[in-house]
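URGENT: need a sanity check before tomorrow's submission.

F., can you look over the Integrase zinc-binding domain-containing protein record below? I want to be sure the sequence and structure line up before it goes out.
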Amino acid sequence: MNQSLLLKLAKIKFLSNKQWDELLDTALWCVRISPIKRIGLSPFQLLFGRNPNSIEIKENCEYANSNKLIKDFNEHLRIIDNMQKTSFIKTNKDKNAKKEFKKTERNFKENDLVLKRNFARTNKGSKKLNPKWEGPYQIISDKGKGVYEIKCVNGLIQKMNGRNLKRY
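Structure tokens as predicted:
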């Protein structure tokens, strides 16, 4: 790339009276859009996956009529505004669904069978395929504020938050 840039700079400098630092942007652009012979693609195509847009100023521009330019601009604004509104609505739906999921009260009664979240799974040494839930456990009592006493099959009693429990 450096050698290609130097060669391109030398050619452009030879054709113009400007200093090399003024021509650097042009030379870089030329190198980036020139196809590499071995692979048949330019660095621009490799990076962005498409051909670069040509930078040409046409004599008879279609936007010479300012009314057409304003109409097109307003149409694009309407389209972008509609996209923004639909995106906003979808985002709010997702947020509300997440809030509703978090709000769902887990009302368990005594003697209900539940599964407990497997916290050992979140440790660094745990394996990906370990189960997310373990159990079944039996609800002994409700301690209030979402805290439950659960009893394991072997008789061990633990206090557990209701968010970490689900019905068996």
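My own read: The CA atoms of residues 29 and 55 lie 11 Å apart. The first helix runs from residue 2 to 15. If you see anything odd, call me.
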